[in-house]
Queue: 2 jobs
Job 1
Amino acid sequence: MKAVAFDYLAPRDVAGALAALAENGAKLMAGGQSLGPMLNLRLVRPRIIVDISRIAALRGMEERSDSIWVGAGVTHAEIEDRGSGMLRAVAARIADRSVRNRGTMAGSLAHADPAADWPLALSLLDATVHLRKAGGTRTVPVDSVMEGAFTTRLAEDELIEAIEVPKLSPTARWGYYKFCRKTGEFAEASAAILLDPERRVARVFLGALNGAPRACHDLANQLAQGGKIDAEARARAIATTAPDLDPIARRMHAGALDRAIKQVFP
Ligand SMILES: Cc1cc2nc3c(=O)[nH]c(=O)nc-3n(C[C@H](O)[C@H](O)[C@H](O)COP(=O)(O)OP(=O)(O)OC[C@H]3O[C@@H](n4cnc5c(N)ncnc54)[C@H](O)[C@@H]3O)c2cc1C
């Protein structure tokens, strides 16, 4: 199957993109790595594609005093090449280099695939999402973006301008593990852990669920207090956080959690 016919616009600035996006039936395209297949399967039938990949103002990635600013046009490959820490490690395991050369963090958030890497990693890191539409801007926590599988709370005429990721302190430790059949594939199960005592942060999240990533609060509290996380504690956390998982998915998530914990406490 091929995509329905559409007009293609490639504005050179954000104002042009927002004006085009306000048109009826317009849809943004960043890297096209998720949108392309959706178009070909006719799961989306836009009248106008607004390609934002050539907007220089969206392509910046910079270190600020307390955060890393990632513009909506920054690709996974650029984060892999120029990023550091957890962002770099997560980017490097997304798909293969050809997908990473075009796909973006913002596109991944807006696509809201439950198995994707950025929704999990950015929830763990408590990132902030900067949104813009013709009428103004707003800033929201990343965990308020994804409503469910492939659905977000973004308005149709709203664009993710950038994602701002808080910096970790030098003593912070993190673990990130995704189970997939082949290297670089979407996760079958995933888990992520962050322990940053200097900032009084302890978080544990599960990904690749039926919707958005979910926090395991009890496990995070246990980790913060230096408690031992045994198989029973992991199983209990998964049963509480994701009671809807079938037995096989529960085992895969328990394995992912175990491995993420071992990255923090080898
Ligand atoms: C073979 C293959 C393997 C993959 N494996 C993985 C993997 O292991 N892990 C993983 O996480 N992902 C994986 N992906 C998905 C990949 O990361 C995509 O790049 C990503 O999901 C979408 O980013 P994009 O920039 O290509 O967005 P696009 O495909 O251009 O757009 C996706 C959606 O986001 C919207 N959108 C894009 N940019 C914005 C914006 N700035 N503001 C608002 N809405 C926007 C579009 O309208 C569209 O609805 C894979 C993809 C492929 C093709």
Job 2
Amino acid sequence: MRLPTGRGALSSALIEALLADDLALLPAPGSASCADPLADDDLQLALWICYELHYRGFDDVHPRWEWQPQLIALRTEWEEQVLAALRRDVGDVGATGSVAERLRELVDGDDGPSMSRYVQLHADRDQFVEFAIHRSIYQLKEADPHSWAIPRLEGAVKVALLEIQFDEYGDGAADRMHSELYRQLLRGIGLDDGYAAYIDDVPGITLAISNVMSLFGMRRELIGPLLGHLAAYEMTSSEPCRRYARGLRRLGGDDATCRFYDEHVTADALHEQVVLHDLCAGYAQGDEARTEQILFGAAACLLVDRRFAEYVLDCWSAGRSSLRTETPDRLAAAG
Ligand SMILES: [Fe+2]
Ligand SMILES: [Fe+2]
């Protein structure tokens, strides 16, 4: 993977510094200030690049940049903007009742637009392709951000997380890894299955979906939000995946292409139980501060998903592409 194209002052300066291997070219501290950090193209791309240094890295960047102190300081500053926006928009998650009950209430009370219903019933082929491109940014590293929690947990709670993650990573079979099933889906609809192949095509809010998980994952102090994020993710997956599979079959998808969704219908119905009763309840142990951290992470997951769905569905209802590039070159090749 090579560095993406810059989208503004921050990301462009960061890319230049990384390419030239020159600290002096990094953006100045305190230079980021955005009205809407969650959807800001420039800020989200800069963060995404910082996080990718901890995942797969870039062929054109020296790996030592992963722990470069000045860059870590900048990243922290950028993260604070995202965290402040999340805290402001999530609001009060007040904790009464068990963590499982509160999570259930939070998820049931989410009244955002349903991307999965739209895809099931109305999306045309081009829209499905766009949707698959957006999701490819996270899905090709599916489960990796939540794995940062593994070495930070102990005992039954660690085992509960591993039960989920072992499934995500294919139950011991590389071709059943969920990220591999997603590659199969991308190939099935004629798309590039390369990691982050569409990074230049997706808007800031799409990057925010995976950046928020990475932010929670990279900071041990945010392990509660990370577990809550995983809970909301698993709890909002099984039924929507059934709808995505129906939508894809309606558009001519075969079983191999739909397998990613089919697998999640059953896997995530189970993961939901494990994440609620073993992982989150086990971690919270009835402690109110921990419960509130879990709920904040779950609410943040729902919020970013809602912002994403609103953005994409608004674009489509206005007859526009939801990608930054109206007709990406690679799409033309996909036909
Ligand atoms: Fe999965
Ligand atoms: Fe899952």
